[in-house]
Design goal:
Helix 8 crosses helix 10. Helices cover 43% and strands 20% of the residues. The chain starts with a helix and ends with a strand. By secondary structure, the chain is an alpha/beta fold.
Amino acid sequence: MAENEELESTESESRQKILVADDEASIRRILETRLKMVGYDVVTAADGEEAVEVFNKTNPDLVVLDVMMPKMDGYGVTREIRRTSDIPIIILTALGDVSERITGLELGADDYVIKPFSPKELEARVKAVLRRTISKDVIIPASGSAASSSASGKNSKNIITTGVIKIDTARRQVFRKNERIRLTGMEFSLLELLVNNSGQAYSRNEILQHVWSYPADHRIDTRVVDVHISRLRSKLEADPTNPELILTARGIGYMFQRIN
């Protein structure tokens, strides 16, 4: 009996945990049931303040977050989470409100699902985002130390260097000199796609297929890509208004240009 309980505890600890925050009880129940059925642990919150509290207590792997909630809306929750964490956030937003989606993405959300939605659709988005945002995070030595220099040195096969930017593809980390730049999982995946194919222009739809795993015939606002590009430029470029690394390929989309 004790062995079975220990096994169940170990399996529970190994499962990815999802926080579902929505003020509609029916949505919480449906998503909790469906996500548990496909192998996730699920914790829930009924308003924004509770969402932040549950997030801090349970340390989930992904957050599904309704925009319109009492006490604190989804934007406020996103801001609070992004103060300390880069874990993936999927926002739930109304069909006709494009501004809600863009605002959520600008604040740091990784993806969105439009209400009304099918639980199967959300399951697919959760799976895709988690697959693309798995972090291999490790403790970074203090800046300037020998270990830090070694970790971000040019000789590692996992290190891509362009100008003062170093990209560690194994640990999914980015540095300016020896200072780490915080990226969300989707931001890193987008950067990785462009860097690994430097000089090749990708359309927004191609980026959505490669990074977000959207099928070619899926209709989604391609401004998801524009917002993420803008976020990357603000973190990587010396002058985001005049980018040197992540360029706009007119009439096509975006491309990465390496700097020696």
